Amino acid sequence: MSRACSDTGERSLAHWSEAGREEMDAFYQVATLDYRELVRAFDWEGCLADRIARRSPVRILDVACGSGKFPAALRAHTGLGALEGCPMVLDLLDPSRFSLREAHASLAPPMRAGREFECTLQALPAQATGYDVVWAVHALYALPEADLPAGARAFLRALAPDGLGFIAHATRAAHYLAFYEAYLGRFDPDGTPFSSAEAVAEALRGAGAEVDVRTIAYDQVIDDERVLEGFLQRCLFDDALSLADMRRDEVLGAYLAQRRDGDGRARLPQEVAMMFIRR
To answer: Distance (Å, rounded) from C-alpha 61 to C-alpha 182?
Structure first.
C-alpha cells in the first residue's frame, strides 16, 4: 500500500487510517515507551498545575495529535488525573481526520477536547493564538525541512506571550531517523527524509524563539517477532515490506543484525531532544 504513495508525507497519511490499525497497534506496543520516558523526564504535573492555578481552563494546542498517546501518558504517569473538573482544554491539530477522531475519543478528565484543525502545522489558521501550552510530541517527522521555518513561525504565533512550547523529537542519532534514512537509500532514493530534532531547533531559533534542549536516551527492546515487524513497518510507513524482507536486504538486514542483543531481542536505541520553547 504505502509504496504506491509518492513521498513521506503521503505515506504517513495513508497509514493514519482504519486500514492501518493492526500495524498501528503493534507500533504502540513499543512506542508507548517514548511517551512514558517523556513524562518521567520532566515535572509535567507541577508545570500544568501551576498554569491551572494561574488560569483555568488551561488552553493547550496538541500539534499533530496522532492517537492522543501523550495526554494518555500524562494521565497514567502523573497525578493530573486526580484534578477535579476539566481544567485543560485541548485543541487538536492533525492533517488526518482519523487521527483527530482517535485523539478526541482518547481524552478523559481533567482534559477535554476543544476545537479541531484538520491541517498541517504550517497551515494553522492565524486566529489560533493565545495558547498557554503548545506541544508537538514525536509529531513533526514528515514535515520537510524546507517547511520547518513556516511551521516554526506558526508554532510560535500560537503561543501566548507567557506560554510554554514543548517539542519532543528524535535526533539524527536515533533509530527513527537512522532506520528511515537506510530505507530511503534502498527503496526510495528520491524520498524526503524525516526532519531531525537538530533541524527543528534551528528553525525555531531562526524564528526568534528561545529553545532549551534536554536530551534523553533509552532502548526500545522487542522480543516478539510479530510486534517487531509491525513496529518497523510503521517506522517506515511501509506495510508491504515484511520483516523477512528487511532482514534479507543488505543494508536493512545489517542494521537489524547490529541491533540484536545476546538474547536475540531487537534493541533499538532512541535519542530524543526535549525542546522547551518560549517566544
So the answer is: 33
pTM: 0.94
The dihedrals phi and psi of 274, each to the nearest 5 degrees, come to -95, 110
pLDDT tens per residue across span 121-171: 999 999 999 999 999 999 999 999 999 999 999 999 999 999 999 999 999
Q: H/E element holding 233?
A: helix 225-236
Give the Cα separation of 224 and 126 in Å (integer).
Answer: 46
Burial class of residue 138, CB neighbours in 10 A (0-12, 13-18, 19+)? buried
What is residue 6's predicted lDDT score, i.e. its pLDDT? 56
Give the angle 238-220-121 at the CA atoms, nearest 5°: 55
- For residue 142, which of 6, 8, 3 has the smallest C-alpha distance? 8
Show the DSSP H helices in 111-174 as ranges.
148-158
Interacting residues of 56 by C-beta distance below 8 A, sequence separation 6+: 87
Q: Which amino acid is at 51?
A: R
Out of 3.40.190.10, 3.40.50.150, 3.40.50.300, 3.30.390.10, the CATH code matching 2-171+191-221+269-278 is 3.40.50.150
Measure the CA–CA gap between 216 and 40, rounded to whole angstroms.
11
In this predicted structure, the answer to whether residue 84 has a pLDDT above a threshold of 50 is yes
